Amino acid sequence: MSERMSAREAIAAVATAFEELEVAHGDFPEDGPLTWLGYGASRARATERTGEQESVVCGVAAVEGRPCVVLSFEFGFLGGSLGQRTGDRLEAAYRTARERRLPLVSLIATGGSRMQEGMLALTQLQRVARQSTLLREAGLPQIAVLRDPTTGGGWATLGAGADVILALPRAQIGFAGSRVRPADADPAAYGAEGQLAAGQIDAIVRKQDLRAVLADWLTLLTGPGRPEPAPVPAAFGESGLPADGWEAVTRARAAGRPRAEAYLDAYFPHRQAVSGDRCGGVDPGMLCGFGLHEGIPYAYAAQTGTATTPAGYRTAARLIRLADRLGIPVLTLVDTPGAANDAAAERAGQGAAIADAFAALASARVPVTTLVIGEGGSGGALALTSPDRTWVTADSYFSVIAPELAAAILKRPESEVRSTASQLRLRPQDLVELGVAKGVLGA
């Protein structure tokens, strides 16, 4: 179990300034809309115990000087449950974020909808979903911090619906709370660490690091206003152009060639990662996130030289769509022998995942810059490639198919693989001549 904080302790942990919103509530019977016997007394005891009038505190805040709207759940008030008055406060927080053009930070600790208010409590989730949609349409980011516990509708709206999802270590996270899940359920599936492994959250952050991490995210998710394309990274590795196609392939496959991590480290002095496809998968060979380059935020999606899985393509598509909505230009680094083609990848929907990545990139309104830094393996690489702003390094290649497979399909002997590679015209200089790439870096 994670350390539990009150709503105001959570705010104090992240905010350097906070001004609470005044929220008007309509008439509310003492025992609520269902006249639930004893409900008014329960609320009174919750107020006496916590000092709060409701299960959510919200206001305008600053996190290391970055302005935002913060809402924080008080789990000590009826388990942080959502009722009609909670919905009033959540709606006020979202509305304030829209009106003031500010990001929204949710510090969540809730057991779900308040049963004493019945269906009227459950429908508050629709209010939250509507407000979240309006904030997205306004191009404003939402960041969730999952405290212990985050379950039920609070997780399925405020939490899982956020753009970036952070969690405290060992926090209980899941749609089903501890009292309603199956008795034989694996408890690891309902914890922060299990949710991270399943691609449902982006990172686990210690309490003492939350303020700095949130300040980073608030900086990175603020677009540059008029988005200019991400500058092309400087090339590493070998210089000089390959003599033939097979030399291009062997150079791109060389074990010591610089990989995506080296390019990202050089390009972004500071960056934060997003992780997971929100469908149960994580691909460690796809690095996605946001970073600052010369003081300007850019999004990045980078392959690391492995076969990309469906989770990788879905994560990249999620990243590109988020960047596009926030007006942040995108940098992609292409380096893969191709899309994963094993049975597990097919069962996980490889075709649909690749199609989704193609669609995300094709529909992006922000500029996308691509640098091919190694292997460009067929459609699995093309799915992350800009159609009009692509460069290649001198130790890269891009091909419709691997030369060995092309030779096999054509029933050529192994001795003809080298000549087949040249026939495919996959060298960096060939790609420029064919109009696929704008130029070769490091030649």
Structure description:
This protein is α/β, with parallel strands linked by helices and 443 residues long. The strands form two sheets. Strands 1, 2, 3, 4, 5, 6, 7 and 8 form an eight-stranded mixed sheet that branches. α3 links the parallel β3 and β4. The chain is elongated. The mean pLDDT is 95.
For the CA atoms, what is the radius of gyration?
25 Å
- Runs in which pLDDT lies below 50 for 5 or more consecutive residues are none
Secondary-structure-derived class: alpha/beta
Give the beta-strand count: 16
Strand content: 15-25%
What's the pLDDT, averaged over the residues? 95
Tally the helices: what do you get?
Answer: 17
Please outline the major beta sheet: 8 strands, mixed
Distance between the termini: 55 Å
Binned, the helix content reads: 25-40%
Q: What general form does the structure show?
A: elongated
Kindly list the characteristics that best describe this protein.
elongated; eight-stranded mixed β-sheet; 36% helix; 443 residues; 17 helices; alpha/beta
Condensed summary:
With 443 residues, the protein is of the alpha/beta class. It is built from 17 helices and 16 strands.
List the helices and strands and how they pair.
Blueprint: H1 7-14, E1 17-20, H2 39-50, E2 56-63, E3 66-73, H3 84-100, E4 104-110, H4 118-122, H5 124-137, E5 142-151, H6 152-159, E6 164-167, E7 173-174, H7 192-197, E8 203-204, H8 210-220, H9 245-253, H10 260-267, E9 270-274, E10 286-293, E11 296-303, H11 310-326, E12 330-336, H12 343-347, H13 350-363, E13 368-377, H14 378-382, E14 390-393, E15 397-399, H15 403-409, H16 417-423, H17 428-433, E16 439-441
Parallel strand pairs: 3-4, 4-5, 5-6, 5-7, 6-8, 11-12, 12-13, 13-14, 13-15, 14-16
Antiparallel strand pairs: 1-2, 2-3, 9-10, 10-11
Helix pairs in contact: 3-5, 5-6, 9-16, 11-13, 15-16
